[in-house]
Amino acid sequence: MNNIRTAITGLEAYLPEYRLTNEELSRMVDTSDEWIMQRVGIKERRILKGEGLATSDMGAEAVKRLLAKTNTDPGEIELLIVATVTPDMFFPPTSCIIADKAGIKNAWSFDLSAACCGFIFSLQTASQFIETGRYKKVILVGTDKMSSITDYSDRTTCPLFGDAAVALMLEPTTEDVGIVDHIFHVDGSGRHHLYMKAGGSQRPASHETIDCKEHYIFQEGQTVFKAAVSRMADVAAEMMEKHNISSDDIAWLVPHQANLRIIEATARRMGLSKEKVMINIEKYGNTTAATIPLCLWDWEKQLKKGDKIIMAAFGGGYTWGSLYLKWAYNG
Full-prediction pTM beyond 0.85? Predict the structure, then answer.
């Protein structure tokens, strides 16, 4: 019987220096700090500034920092997976560009797009390669330049998103740590409520699509909120029931950082106190594929080997799911 699990053995982040505050946003659109904080809980978000800088630049910097932190030679990496919805371009894959910029020459790579579930879907995908026994060092990157597809004249969406990248080292373990289980779902009917209309094969770029601002995020806020509250909370609770885990057993809930009210509803459904929930949405906003690993990075020093952690996310598609793991090292 194969008893190999996949352990997170290191992580590093890259955050752009520029902070876009609610006060600055209020000078751009009809909004206010009070309005944004009450509805989503975001105070500021990081924005990648600079001519030609893209998702790969953030991802590559996070990977380089991870390699240095873990004292890993780039040549040891066998597989690189990038979770993103803001690739540098349709092709080549952003993973290829990040590998080149980070000096990774002996790995194959690919991108995975699953909206705000991109990270947990990619983490489980990466774990399958390791659990076969064939791969020993895999890097997973969650990175998105959400500012590149945000309409800063739309008061309903522009306060929500930020830019960031996090890279994780994944390695095999035979100890009682690592990824234990996952529960994932999709519902394609949700595509009508959260999407970017143009730029793909259905509506290629044209003067019309640009004039109609169809290359930006579109969201029916109330519809998406209701779906996210119920499904993210239910799937996290389902994981607890499946493994007979009580709220006392759980060390941390690591939720996708889209809306503070969704996070709080998920914690209540799981019977968790606020002290057991990683929340950094106030500082970074919704960085899509980077939100969950950004929480792990922020809390790394507090994590202890064996901590039981449940990750939960909901995103466009609709996509949603939970992932249960036991932390592999002391922070």
Answer: yes
